Amino acid sequence: MEKDTVEHLIKSLSERNIQGYYFESFNEAKLEIMKMISKHESVGIGNSVTLKRMELSNDLISRGNNVYDKTLAKNKEEIKEIKRKALLTDWYITGTNAISLEGHIVNMDHSGNRVAAMLYGPNNVVVVIGSNKITKTLDEAVYRVRNIASPKNAKRAGMNPPCVDLQKCIDCKSPDRVCNNLVVIEGQNESRRMKVFIVNEEEGF
Ligand code: SF4
């Protein structure tokens, strides 16, 4: 990742009351997250390929944190309960579907629990992004979310809307549609609430 790109993104985020930080690797980013969060604090985890590969939930649980990660639930009822409890945690850690160089954080959610927690509830939010999530503009970020992230996430969730075969969005009305909540975070009211960890590796959709 070019130094100019990182500096541009961190400046754009700062103008939106969001703190941006740069890391060479996901492992470095994870170590910083583990350092920032005390073992007495509760943590909600957004469903994310990036965070899964970082094994963040396992590490937090091992040292005693109370972690709400729906991917560790045993059944549908537990999934629902975890999604609700993760809305009132001390920390919420999540990936994102795209971020523009102008600092727009763009996500598409199926049920909306992840974007709900990003918007309001948890006291602190950390958004972890690989370099593959960065686009030049908001339009490109939305394009990425619809045509790259959503088809892959639909497949990962075992859904079969038309984009899984077509590898592009046709704005379907399929019962398997995963695109119910398109959310653009433009900024933060509280200046220390949201942090974006920009990682110089590619991961996730
Ligand atoms: S609206 Fe439908 S076709 Fe478009 S990305 Fe979402 S699920 Fe796929």
TrEMBL record:
InterPro entries: LUD_dom, UCP020269
Pfam families in UniProt: LUD_dom (PF02589)
Top-rank taxon: Bacteria
Sequence ranges assigned to domain LUD in this UniProt record: 6-199
Protein name as catalogued: YkgG family uncharacterized protein
